[in-house]
Structures are given as structure tokens and as C-alpha cells.
Design brief:
The structure is a single chain. The protein contains eight helices and 22 strands. By secondary structure, it is of the alpha/beta class. The protein folds into three domains: about 25-150, 3-Layer(bba) Sandwich (FAD/NAD(P)-binding domain), CATH 3.50.50.60; about 155-220, FAD/NAD(P)-binding domain, CATH 3.50.50.60; about 240-330, Enolase-like, domain 1. The strands form seven sheets. A five-stranded parallel beta sheet has the order 5-12-6-7-8, with helices on one face. A five-stranded antiparallel beta sheet has the order 18-19-22-21-20. Strand 9 (about 125) and strand 10 (about 130-135) form a beta hairpin. It is flat and about 60 Å long. Residues about 325-330 have low confidence and may be disordered.
Length: about 325
């Protein structure tokens, strides 16, 4: 009989089991970190509330990490009129989702909103409320926020012999290596259709699509989700960013004032894109990547300049509009 033991020692039987254990903040092993009094992570609502409760105007806040979590935290706490410094080992902001030029645009925008950065550096040790960097620079702070990424929670499956890597390995039906056990969300490692590699993609769209896939298959259907791609959308002090896919191949580039667009394509397919500023109709680009649409079947030149359904054939427009109508009725 298939059983799960709970933390109180009781047991629950199951026919099909879903593991959706998510991820946890990564805490770097830095000397003296355990002695820092006001330290916080920033991945849950409770984290945000605890951080907010200690902030006062004029406080010095040190954020470890200039990625999505760290920068969104910095934006959120700016209303408290605190002094914020971000330290990151990477030499640019949002290094995991932006190219060098895009990162430069965002860094300049953030600096105009009173953010300071110390990039290409890492904290070597803490001495109470002073961070000492690897070049011996000292940064005093009142509050420390740790935002250097997350790690998938895989131990539940790993401890019973399930196949794991950085995340729990799943197939296109969200099945793990153990019969009748499925997994979905941030704890998983799945196939990235844009790069052809197995990756951890801790992103909301992939999580809910995997959850739907797992639920359908656990209830007896035969459902496949094999179109996961890295995709991010974030706004920072009024500047919007959407990215997806991988940045390989030929490049279409359009820079117009506050707007920045790059499309990456090869072998008759769109591989990835970066949009900063004007993000209108970004979903069309995402759809082209996810579905692997042949670029010679659409007006790609028009799509580059002005994404819209008119770039598709009459038959494709009817199909896509039909899907939109069906989705609207279902909603």
C-alpha cells in the first residue's frame, strides 16, 4: 500500500501523489552571517511583512543580489525612504535575463531612482552590521536582505530514491521516476523547448501549466506539457521588462527612445526576445517560441516591427482568434 508519513507520525494512503514542494531561499555560507541581527529573505508575503515592520526612514539597507528578487525588493522598500545598496558577484544587474546593453539601460534607470550598486563583488564576511567585500570595501547597514536565488525542495523524492538533479526530474506528463508520483512547479527540472536542455525554470506560467498537466494525468487523462520556456515579466519604477527563451542566433534590434527590443532567431525559428519599455503584444513572441512556429509561415519582418495577428496567414488568424474566443467563453 502506498503511504505518506506526516510530520506528526500519522499516515495517509494515496493512489496518485503530487509533489509541489516549491523552492527555498538560498542562504550563502558567509562568515559572520549568523551574527547579523536584522536579516531577511524576500520570497513570501510573510518575508515582506517582516521586513516592512522594521524599516524606518533613513535606514541603510544592504541587498545581496541584483536579480529579480533583489531589485523588486529594492523597489518595494523605496517608499520607506531608505538608503539601498545592492551587491552582486555578477558585473551587471538582472544578468540572468538581460544582455549587457539591456542591463545597462535598467541600471541607469534604477540609479535615477536613488539605488546604488556594487557589482562584480561579493561579501567575504560580516562584522556585526558591517559587510566586508572581497576587495575589503566596508558597507555599514541597518538591515540585510538576502536575495541570491532559490533552491528547489527535492529531498522528499530524493530520499526515497527518486531521480533528481538540481530539481526533481519529470517527463512531459509531469511523472517522476517513481510510479504514481508526479511533481510540478519550482521543485522540478523539466525540458526547456527553447534551448533543448533540462532546466529548473522556477516561473509562475510553467508552474501552473505543470500543475494542470499533473492533475489531468493523475485523474486518468493523457495530457502532455512539453512547451516550458524561461520567461520573465517585471516592472521596476515604471519601467517594464519582458524576456523569454534563449539569446542565440541572428539578432533583430530596435532601440527607440525609452524602448529596447531584441529578437533572436535561427533555423527558421524565434529563439528568444528582450523587451524593455514597450511590451505590448509580447505574448505573440512568446507563442512563436513556445509553439516553434516556422518563421517562413508568417510575415516575420512585420512581426519584428509591429507584432499583431495580421502577420499570420488567414487560416492561422482564424485558428488563433478561435482559440481566443474559446478561452474567453471558458473564462
Amino acid at each position: 500500500k502506498k503511504m505518506v508519513m506526516l510530520n506528526d507520525g500519522s499516515y495517509v494512503s494515496y493512489d496518485k501523489l503530487l509533489i509541489a514542494t516549491g523552492s527555498s531561499p538560498f542562504i550563502p555560507p558567509v562568515k559572520g552571517l549568523d551574527k547579523v541581527r536584522n536579516k531577511f529573505t524576500f520570497t513570501t508575503l510573510d518575508d515582506a511583512r517582516k521586513l516592512e515592520s522594521v524599516l524606518e526612514e533613513g535606514m541603510k539597507v544592504l541587498i545581496l543580489g541584483a536579480g529579480l528578487i533583489g531589485l523588486k525588493c529594492a523597489e518595494g522598500i523605496s517608499k520607506k525612504k531608505v538608503k539601498t545598496v545592492c551587491v552582486d558577484l555578477a558585473t551587471r544587474v538582472l544578468s540572468s535575463i538581460l544582455d549587457e546593453e539591456g542591463s545597462g539601460i535598467i541600471k541607469e534607470h534604477l540609479e535615477k531612482n536613488n539605488m546604488r550598486f556594487c557589482l562584480g563583488r561579493q561579501v567575504a564576511r560580516f562584522s556585526e552590521d558591517i559587510a566586508i567585500l572581497d576587495d575589503e570595501t566596508e558597507i555599514p547597514f541597518d538591515v540585510l536582505v538576502i536575495a541570491v536565488g532559490v533552491r528547489p525542495n527535492i529531498s522528499l523524492l530524493k530520499d526515497i530514491g527518486g531521480r533528481t538533479n538540481r530539481g526533481i526530474i519529470i517527463d512531459e506528463r509531469c511523472r517522476t521516476s517513481i510510479p504514481d508520483i508526479y511533481a510540478a512547479g519550482d521543485c522540478c527540472e523539466s525540458y526547456d523547448t527553447s534551448s533543448g536542455e533540462m532546466k529548473v525554470m522556477a516561473l509562475l506560467p510553467n508552474a501552473y501549466m505543470q500543475g494542470e498537466c499533473a492533475g489531468m494525468n493523475m485523474s486518468g487523462a493523457d495530457y502532455v506539457f512539453d512547451r516550458a520556456i524561461p520567461m520573465n515579466a517585471i516592472g521596476l519604477f515604471g519601467k517594464h521588462i519582458i524576456t523569454a527563451g534563449v539569446y542565440t542566433g541572428e539578432v533583430y534590434k530596435d532601440v527607440d527612445g525609452e524602448n529596447y527590443k531584441k529578437l533572436f532567431y535561427s533555423n527558421n525559428r524565434l529563439n528568444g526576445f528582450i523587451l524593455i519599455g514597450n511590451i505590448e503584444k509580447a505574448g505573440i513572441y512568446t507563442s512563436l517560441i513556445r509553439e516553434g512556429t516556422p518563421l517562413d509561415s508568417i510575415d516575420f519582418e512585420l512581426i519584428c516591427r509591429m507584432p499583431g495577428l495580421m502577420a499570420f496567414s488567414k487560416e492561422e488568424r482564424a485558428s488563433r482568434l478561435g482559440g481566443m474566443v474559446r478561452d474567453s467563453i471558458a473564462g
